[in-house]
Amino acid sequence: MLRMVHALKFGGQRALAPYLGERLAKQVLKAGWEADCVTFVPASTVKLKGRGFDQAELLARSASEHLGIECRALLTRSQPGAARGSQAALGRSARSLNAAGAFTASGARRLRVLLVDDVMTSGATLTACRTELLSAGARQVTAAVVARTVRSESDLLENDDHSDQDP
Description:
By secondary structure, the protein is an alpha/beta fold. It has one domain: Rossmann fold, CATH 3.40.50. Helix content is 46%, strand content 18%. The strands form two sheets. It has a four-stranded parallel beta sheet, with helices on both faces. Strands 3-4 form a two-stranded antiparallel sheet. β5, α7 and β6 (140-148) form a beta-alpha-beta unit. The radius of gyration is 15 Å and the shape is globular.
């Protein structure tokens, strides 16, 4: 699964998004999660210009079609990605600091939101987005990712109880 996400994200293979979004939707249904709308972690301006598309948005739009619920852009970047730097090379605590305050949310009042991203590494980005959505009045935020990286055995042990929730 991670290879397909990499092909989408770094290889420009947009044709994979509908398949991956459908798989994500199936896992959401299987888990019994309910949402009023789907949203996504927005790509930085730098990444968007470089890739020409936002892979998380493509995945969210595909998943929303399969779930039969609206996809809305509820999150924006509060600072350009270049100002904050990439999360890729950072450790867990540095990722949390880098992601905090990086997003703003609007239009989430009283909604149960399904938050979609392509890959979860530390969870810092999803946590920052969830915090903003809740601050904007979301009733509930559930995160769904297509793939999850595991960096160490402690990551496996720490998150063992959630392993069945990834598609």
